[in-house]
Amino acid sequence: xxxxxxxxxxxxxxxxxxxxxxxxxxxxxxxxxxxxxxxxxxxxxxxxxxxxxxxxxxxxxxxxxxxxxxxxxxxxxxxxxxxxxxxxxxxxxxxxxxxxxxxxxxxxxxxxxxxxxxxxxxxxxxxxxxxxxxxxxxxxxxxxxxxxxxxxxxxxxxxxxxxxxxxxxxxxxxxxxxxxxxxxxxxxxxxxxxxxxxxxxxxxxxxxxxxxxxxxxxxxxxxxxxxxxxxxxxxxxxxxxxxxxxxxxxxxxxxxxxxxxxxxxxxxxxxxxxxxxxx
Length: 279
Ligand SMILES: [Mn+2]
Known about the structure:
- This protein has 279 residues and is an alpha/beta fold.
- It has helices spanning 14-17, 37-51, 75-89, 143-152, 155-163, 166-182, 184-188, 193-205, 235-238, 257-260; strands at 23-26, 55-58, 66-67, 93-97, 102-103, 116-118, 120-125, 128-133, 210-213, 220-224, 227-231, 241-244, 251-253.
- It contains 10 helices and 13 strands.
- Strand 10 and strand 11 (227-231) form a beta hairpin.
- Helix 2 (37-51) packs parallel to helix 3 (75-89).
């Protein structure tokens, strides 16, 4: 009667001791820029929850603009932040990587909505070292942008963002958009391949295995042996989510698959026509 009970145990290895983590990375959402895009974001977040993401990384530019002080938040921003808070209540870690539309993400008022914020996010998955940054400093032709970034994210700017009359402060923040359009947006129509390659090689030389950037909105990839660098397509145009599981292989998934089929290095949205300047 009693069959001998056999336990089939897989061999113990170090991977088993690590807590499995599934990460989702979304870049350049610009929520609030187009009508109804907040609804799209809400359903995208529901999808992340359904797939069981343990960590959600926003690779910069979640909203049309995000300033760390509540006086700048409109209904769309509040609702979007509410989605992040609800992810966190479910136990998902939320990381905000700072983009060119993000200001003072370390401000305490954002504490309910993110676990960490900074210009860089790094982790190890599947034994590979990942480095994630927005990428707005890669293009060396963007001298005016670099200057504007330094000024707009400085200590004095933080002070006036808190102290100036609300309407005036908002006008200045939204004014960044037209200013940016005059500066780095004109350069960003073409991918700065040489700068991207140099930046990737610098990270590889420092021991990084996988680099993920946003900012440029269109896909680009460089492989050197086991190392790889990717520009993640903008969620705004493609609904792209990058999934990183325990094997350390990033899987880039576009929601609108039909548009990404021909997205080798030169896809439909790479051209000038039909591309809004505002990134
Ligand atoms: Mn950007």
